[in-house]
User: What shape does this take?
Amino acid sequence: GDSVTQMEGPVTLSEEACLTINCTYTATGYPSLFWYVQYPGEGLQLLLKATKADDKGSNKGFEATYRKETTSFHLEKGSVQVSDSAVYFCALSDAGGSYIPTFGRGTSLIVHP
Amino acid sequence: GAGVSQSPSNKVTEKGKDVELRCDPISGHTALYWYRQSLGQGLEFLIYFQGNSAPDKSGLPSDRFSAERTGGSVSTLTIQRTQQEDSAVYLCASSLVGRGDYEQYFGPGTRLTVT
Assistant: This one.
């Protein structure tokens, strides 16, 4: 079945540092890929998505590129802020029919001033 | 506009009691999902509703768990005879259509503590 693997957290960075959170996936078809973010005390919200190979999703300074050859969708940001502290979830869905997305276990990001 | 709302935000209950958790999805969204999020774990799928179709209950962990969705809108997740391992955050999400590649909109969750 489909699966998503994310790097273990927490990731601890100083403000303005570069961020990369690794995400790799296993899927039988051509899934859509997502990054969701969960701020403390809130539900998840969509951060960005990509629906086909080589697409780049971007939002709020975050980017991720759909790499079919490496089955990866790493999340990157050039300069993090304290307000980026949250838990980040990588997810995939089989656009061909499955209505239940598969989520990774989440990676906690802590940004210090 | 209004997002997905859940109530209560926190629930503390004694082992063996029944609890009901409520979800109000975004108006017009035909798909509704329930997930469980335990400490340090990812999202565990519980149940999925799509329009008037029979729900997909394949993620429910035991027969103590049940859910219904009335009128294609509000949903209630019921846990009977609660156990300590049921302690978790229960998240509800809705989506415009029942396809996994559509964005899901999540509520803030209900934190359930079973003592």
Strands of chain B lie at 5-7, 10-13, 19-24, 31-37, 43-50, 65-69, 75-79, 88-95, 105-106, 110-114. DSSP finds no helices and ten strands in chain B. Residues 5 and 24 of chain B are 5 Å apart (CA to CA).
